[in-house]
Design a protein that fits this description.
8 strands; 40% helix; alpha/beta; 13 helices; two-stranded antiparallel ribbon
């Protein structure tokens, strides 16, 4: 429809972007008996229905799905990102080295340019193109103006693409020469890292929707979109979001698992923080725990939200 050399060129009535399904719908497709498992599924497949469809036959065998669909050179998704880049209009294959650099851990402009042997000043155009395509996300810390470039980070936006550029792209030759049990070792090496980032991402995504949930934290909202906070040697904060029309600032930590002592400790930590735009505001501690192990929903002044609460808000 958009390619000038194609038979159906210029016959569209309307063009619009189809976004991935919201993470909360994973429960409708894969069941709601294990919400932490749904977080693991999101970290692998994101929100594309086609990927979910391919995973369904594997039921609960996550490793079999990863190997058969992605790690195996004959798998249907083994070369998926390369096809996606070729299908962009115009084709974006020339931007592949930038994605390789970001996928393997270069997030600052200077780091990305250094990996590619290019000046940081030359990276503005390719990064802008990748952001416009929805392949890369530009991240600015809480308290900084969105247009500032001082502490900007760039990350691959889609969970599946993060998996591919972290695990598949750097190890293509080894994966082609290895049996399944060896291929899976490459994925296991980065699994927790990928799941941890996906969980943090889900927690930030859920914050503007918490007021629609039945969790006690709903009464504090609605909140504006959440961001991370980092600056120099200061402690990094996973989730920071101001409430609309109030003097409340949600300050959250995302953890894969936690104890009551961990939650209480975070409550004490938040009380001593000095964040941008926090003067005169109530700092409200929240701990997001993928597996809450039956923790109460409030401990020592801090709210506890598990995977069920987070994914339930993301529908």
């Amino acid at each position: 429809m958009l390619d000038s050399g194609a038979p159906m060129y210029d016959r569209t009535d309307q063009a619009f972007a189809l976004r991935p399904l919201r993470p909360g719908y994973l429960a409708d497709v894969f069941g709601s008996d294990d919400w932490r498992r749904l977080v693991s599924l999101h970290a692998l497949w994101g929100g594309l229905p086609r990927y979910w469809e391919l995973v369904l036959p594997f039921v609960n065998d996550l490793e079999a799905a990863v190997d058969s669909l992605v790690l195996d050179p004959a798998g249907p998704l083994h070369e998926e990102p390369e096809r996606l880049l070729e299908q962009e209009i115009p084709p974006a294959a020339a931007l592949r080295p930038v994605l390789d650099a970001i996928g393997t851990g270069a997030h600052r402009v200077s780091e990305i340019g250094g990996r590619l042997g290019r000046a940081a000043s030359s990276m503005a155009r390719p990064l802008k193109s990748l952001v416009a395509m929805g392949l890369v996300r530009r991240e600015v810390p809480f308290g900084d103006h969105p247009r500032t470039g001082k502490r900007t980070l760039y990350r691959i936006d889609d969970p599946f693409l993060r998996l591919w550029f972290r695990v598949i792209a750097p190890h293509r030759a080894a994966l082609c020469a290895s049996p399944p049990e060896t291929r899976l070792r490459y994925w296991r090496r980065y699994r927790r890292q990928l799941e941890g980032y996906a969980w943090e991402e889900l927690c930030r995504m859920a914050v503007p929707c918490l007021h629609r949930s039945n969790h006690p934290a709903a009464d504090m909202g609605p909140f504006k979109p959440a961001r991370r906070y980092w600056r120099g040697d200061e402690r990094e904060i996973d989730v920071v979001a101001p409430a609309f029309g109030g003097k409340r600032l949600l300050v959250g930590e995302a953890k894969w698992s936690a104890t009551a002592a961990d939650v209480s400790r975070w409550s004490g930590t938040v009380a001593g923080l000095a964040l941008p735009d926090s003067a005169g505001k109530d700092l409200t501690p929240v701990v997001f725990v993928a597996s809450a192990n039956e923790l109460p929903r409030r401990i020592g002044g801090a709210d506890v939200l598990d995977a069920r609460a987070v994914l339930g808000a993301l529908r």
